[in-house]
Amino acid sequence: MGGPPPAGPQPAPGGPGPAAAGPGPASGPEPDGQPQPPGAPAAPHADPSAPPDDRIGPGDDATAATGRLGHGSQRYGHLRAAYANVDGDVVGRDKNVFLFGEGPERLWPLSPVLAERVRFAYEEAPGADEARDALRRQRIVILRGPAGIGKTAMAARLLIGVCRGPVYHLDSGAGLGSLADRLDAAGGGSGGGSGSGSGDTGSGIEPGAGFLLDRPADAANLRGEIHDRLQTALMAAGATMVVTVADTDLADSDLLSGVVDLTRPPAPRALVRRYLTWRLGAQEAAALLADPEVEKLLAERVDGRTSCKAAADLATAMADEYQYGGLDAGRIRERLARQGLETFEIWAEGLTDPFVRAFALALAVLNGLPQDDIAAAARALLRRMDAGLSPAEPAPGEPRYQSVAPRDLLALPMRKLLVRLHARRVAGRNGGTGSGAGQGGPGDGVGAGRTRGTAVTARPAGVGGPGTRSQGQDRTQCLEYQDPAYPRQVIAHFWSQYAIQDVLLDWFGDLVRERSEQVRVYAAVALGGLLRTSLPYLTEGLLSDWAFHQDFRLREAAGYALATGGRDPGLRPEIEALTDSWFADRTRPLGQATAARVYGLGRPAAGHGRNIAALARLSVVDHMKVAVAIGDSYSDMIAADHALAPLVLSVLRSGAGDPPARPTCLLAFLIVASSLVVDGTRPDMADGDGWPALLYLTADQPGLREPLLVLWREALSQAYFNKQAQGVLRTWAGLAEADDKLRETFMAMVAGIVHGDQRSAAIVRMCARDWTGRDELAPLPVVAWEVGKVLEREKV
C-alpha cells in the first residue's frame, strides 16, 4: 500500500478526537493482540473524544503488547500461508523460493494430484524409454507432440523416476533466456556450483532437483545457445529439466538433438484399467471392466481416440460413481457430456450434500489448519445454511437465525469425506498448529512453538535453549486440498454461483472473532481474496464498519483483507484511497489504527519507504490502539524483509527525540523487539534460531546497532514504558541464559547500552539483581553474573 497523498488533512499531534465505532458489540478493554476471555464483562462506552484509557501510557495494554515473544514472526507465518491459499503469490507451507541471480524465481512443487496419479496410475507411452535415457545423459529433454497425447504426465513420470530431489513446476510464462541466465548464475556458471550434482551447490538449487516447464509461452524463442546454457547450468547443479512443446512450437533446428517426439499416446483401455486398479483394487477393477455397460462406455468414449484426457475422464467418472453408490452408465454419460467445462466446476457442482458443501468451504478458507478448527467452522456454516433467516431487523435479543433440527453429523466418516473433496490429512508440519496457537496471556512471554507457516522459536523466558520446542504438537492432524489451486477456486465458486453472500459474511464475521489467531488470519485473508470481484460491496459496508470497530479483531481482519486485495495491482489505487481517507481522519483514531495495519501489510508500488514515512507521521497521535497498530505494522515489515530493520529503527530513533511522537515510538520499538524472533524458515539464519531478530541482525547489518542501543537506553530510562522495557530485556536475557553465542552477543549489546551512561547502568544493574532475586521463579544466574562483569569492565 502506498502512503497517504501529500495533500489533505493530517493528524494533529496528540489530538485523537472522537472514535466512531462500527455496529456490533464492543469487546471490552483489550490488550491489543489478545481477545477478552469468554464471558468477560464489556467495558462501558466512555466519551471517545478524550478517552483516558486510550491515551498512550504504561498499563496492561502496553504490557500485553510487549509481552508476546515471537508473536510478530508467527503472525507473519500465518499470513504467508493464508496468502498462498488465496492467490498463490507468496511462498507458504510447501511452496519454495530460490534466489536465482538478482531476483526470486517462485517454484511450485509438482501438483500432489498429478504426482500421485503418475506414480500409481501411469500407463507408459511409446517413446518413454528413449526419453528416460536422454534425460539421464543430457539433463534436459524436450518432449514434443500433439495436444492430449500425455506429454505432461510423461514429463512428470520421467522427473519422479530420474530425480533424487524434489520436482518443481515452473511458470509457463517464464522467459527461457532469463531462466537460463538465472540458472547459469545460481547453478555454478558463475562459480556457485559444486560439480555434477554432489554436495551443496551453494546457489539455492537443490542437488538432484527436477524442473517441469510445460508449454512455455515463448517456446518459439528457444534457441540452441539457450538450450546449451540451460544444460550446462543443470549439470553444474546436478538438476534435470523436462520441457514440453507442441508439434509446431520449435523454430531452431539446433534443438533437434534434444527433442524426443511422442507420436502415440498410451493404450487408452490400458490407461483406464490401471487407473481403476489404483482407485478400486485389482479385483474390483476387473469385475467392473467385465460389466457390459462399461464395455459400451469404453467403446463410446475411448476407442478410436488419441487423447489421454478422454480415457482419464472416463476412468475418473467410473471410479467416483462406483465408490459413491454403484456404477450407473447414465450418470456417467451425463457427467462426461459436460466435458467442455472446467474439471473444477464439475467437481464443485457435484457437492450436493449441504454438510459436504459447508466442509468444502470451511476447508477452502482454513486450508492447512487443524481438523478441529475446520470441522468447527463447517458446523457453524452449516447451521447458517440450514436455518431460516430472522426478520431483516430482528428485535432486541432475537437470534439472527432460527434454530432447526440438528443433522446427523455421523453420517459421513472423515476418510470418505476427504476422498470426496480431493483432500487429505497431513501432520502439523514444523511442530504443528492448533486452536489458540500463539494465544499466550498478556505479558506471559510464551508463544506456541513452530507453526506450519513459520517456525517460531517461542518459549518461556529463561527456559531451554535454542533447540527447545513445544512438545506434543507434532501429532496435530491438519487437512488440506490436494490441489493448491482449490482453496481460492472453491471460495470464488460459492461466492459467485450462489446467492448466499449475507450468510457467508455473517460466517466470516464469526471466524475473525475466533480466539485462534490462525483462524482469524486465514478467514480475513480469504475474505480479501473476494475483493477482486466484489470490492465496492465489501468495502462500502462490511470492511468500513470493521475498520472503526472497538473489537481489535475486526480491525485487524479489515487490515488483512485490504492488504490481501492490495496485492492485485488493479485494486491497489482504490484500496490506497480508502486507507488514506482513514489515515487522514483525525476524529476517528480507530480507523487510523486500521490504516496503520494496512500500511504495514501492504505492497506499496513506490516502495516501503513511503509506508514507513506514513507510519512515522501517524506516531504523533496520542492513542494506545494506534500506537500498538504502528508497532505491529513495523514488525510485519521487518518479518517480511529483514533488510528494512535499519530503516525502521532509524525512524523510531528519530521519533523518540520528538516529544509528541516519543511514547508511540518507544512502545513500537518494544513491540518489535519482543515480537520478532529468528525462526527455522531461513537457511541463511539457521545459526540464530531462537534469537531475538533485532539482536541477530546487528551482525549482518552494522547500521542497526547504533539506533538499537539508543532506543534501548531511551526505553529503559524514560518513564513511559520503563517497566515494559525491563520485561522485554528480561525476555532477551532468558533466551541468552542457555545459549553461549547468543549470550556473548547480548553482553556486547548491554555493554553498548551502559557505556558512559550512569542511568542506564543503574537500571541494568537493578534488572540483573531481580533476575536472581528470591521471588524469581526462573532465575538467570549466568546472565546476571556476566552482566555484573560487563558493568565492572565499563566502570559504570
Descriptors:
single chain; about 800 residues; mainly alpha; 9 strands; disordered N terminus
Tertiary shape:
globular
Specify the structural class.
mainly alpha
Number of helices: 33
Span from first to last CA? 46 Å
Strand order of the largest sheet: 1-2-4-5-6-3-7
Mean pLDDT: 75
User: Which consecutive residue ranges, at least 5 long each, have pLDDT under 50?
Assistant: 1-29, 31-52, 88-105, 188-203, 430-474
Portion in strands: 5-15%
The multimeric state of the shown protein is: single chain
- How many β-strands, per DSSP? 9
Helix content: 40-55%
Kindly provide the radius of gyration, computed on alpha-carbon positions and rounded to a whole number of angstroms: 29 Å
Describe the main β-sheet briefly. Answer: 7 strands, mixed
Please give a quick description of this structure.
The chain is mainly α. Strands 1-2-4-5-6-3-7 form a seven-stranded mixed sheet. Strands 8-9 form a two-stranded antiparallel ribbon.
Write the layout of secondary structure elements.
Layout: H1 60-66, H2 71-86, E1 96-100, E2 103-109, H3 112-120, H4 128-138, E3 140-144, H5 151-162, E4 167-169, H6 176-187, E5 210-214, H7 224-237, E6 240-245, E7 259-261, H8 268-280, H9 282-289, H10 292-301, H11 308-323, H12 329-337, H13 343-349, H14 354-365, H15 371-386, H16 414-420, E8 423-427, E9 477-481, H17 486-497, H18 501-511, H19 517-529, H20 531-547, H21 552-565, H22 572-584, H23 589-601, H24 608-618, H25 624-640, H26 645-656, H27 662-675, H28 693-700, H29 705-717, H30 722-736, H31 740-754, H32 758-771, H33 781-794
Parallel strand pairs: 3-6, 3-7, 4-5, 5-6
Antiparallel strand pairs: 1-2, 2-4, 8-9
Helix pairs in contact: 2-19, 2-25, 3-5, 6-7, 8-9, 8-11, 10-11, 11-12, 14-15, 14-17, 15-18, 19-21, 20-21, 21-23, 22-23, 23-24, 23-25, 24-25, 24-26, 25-27, 26-27, 26-29, 29-30, 29-31, 30-31, 31-33, 32-33
